[in-house]
Amino acid sequence: MTINxxxxxxxxxxxxxxxxxxxxxxxxxxxxxxxxxxxxRGPALSSVRVSLLLTALAMIVIVAVGTPAAAYIARCRARExxxxxxxxxxxxxxxxxALGILMTLxxxxxxxxxxxxxxxxxxxxxxxxxxxxxxxxxxxGYYVLGAVAALDAVPVMLQKQAAxxxxxxxxxxxxxxxxxSRLGLAVAxxxxxxxxxxxxxxxxxxxxxxxxxPVQLWVNxxxxxxxxxxPLLVVFIxxxxxxxxxxxxxxxxxxxx
Amino acid sequence: xxxxLRLGQGCCLGLFGASGAGKSTVLACIAxxxxxxxxxxxxDGLKFFPxxxxxxxxxxxxxxxxxxxxxxxxxxxxxxxxxxGNRVSKEQLEWIETLRDRLQxxxxxxxxxxxxxxxxxxxxxxxxxxxxxPPLILLDEPFAGLDRQLVRxxxxxxxxxxxxxxxxxxxxxxxxxxxxxLCPAQAVVxxxxxxxxxxxxxxxxxAPATPLLRSxxxxx
Lengths: 257, 220
Fold this sequence. Notes:
The complex is a heterodimer of chains A (about 260) and B (about 220). Chain A has helices at about 5-20, 40-75, 80-95, 95-105, 110-120, 130-150, 155-165, 170-195, 200-205, 215-225, 225-240, 240-255. By secondary structure, chain A is mainly α. In chain A, helix 8 (about 170-195) crosses helix 12. Chain B has eight helices and eight strands. In chain B, a hairpin with a 2-residue loop joins strand 7 (about 185-190) and strand 8 (about 195-200). The interface of A and B includes residues 160, 163, 169, 172 and 176 of A.
């Protein structure tokens, strides 16, 4: 009896996928009834609101600042581009806890920017502003690097052709570059979204309050144990995962179409 | 490269030479795709270089081997792309309809540019270039890879419009017969970035200046 090699490879890939998704079976673990009483539900729902609203706000900042930055870097010569990319990698590669500590010191009363902001009543610790700022720092590098790759994928000659048809650089960007890179930009944004909404290490230092979902999960785990964690975990997964997952699937589908 | 070209209004000039002679570079410098090291480029008193005039301020049409259509737009949107503000006046509309009918684009009008064939894409890019009625048209081997019948049709269209609209044209090709049909009166031959001969095609064929040119003109 001969077994088709293709089927062996497929079975191997299926096994790999099963191992990768195995942690999700923990949602059905026998840990007793899930806790969703008022003392768990109130803070949990508040953390969902905080995470979704403030992460959305952070994404607006990231897109508004990151897209022009990415457009500039995409046009740079190789040497300059390398420098910018190296700079963007620093917050990505920094351990989140270290980033949180650095941000607390830099934006707190001991830092020059922090003391200046405090004079105008902007408190950068345990406030929504601190939460959004941390998420911007956490997600910006991912978005800009992804956006540079997306903008790079638009043929330069098409952009020059549009300019030769009389469009100013800004209009070339809006009418040609942006539409042709929109899926790549969406993928970059979805990575930034997942990274920011799931951030714990940096946020727990800079903005323990208002608690987002990751911090609240940790609080629930410490205060009530696993039965109080799982309901919020389900909400967390449902809120953070579907949109970026769908964008990635669509991007891959377009790539292989 | 060392090239000095002058072209009168409504004239057509064929840049001829072997691959690597620098023909496309000359066009790219005029279009602004590449920047020359030295010299000057001017159109009707409008200085293209130096300093380098931004691409969007150069009133030229530039057609290359790649149609360069915007794949996210329809054929009609591609053709009206360069019209300021995309607000088409009555006169412009009539002109675009003329282009559409002459280039047989009506059946493709609402099709997505990414879904049409290579030959159709060349016709659309020609229409898009002509839609703005540029005073100077640069053609960089725009017919490469097309069947003879289509090439003949496109050349006939270009010659027809160059006469009716009186635009100037610089065409590059390594096929002498294409250039001869397109620009019968005036040819410039380049070899290794230098002009080796210029004049009407009959003169080039009668007394080619170099052995390479003689071999290139042999098919005629």
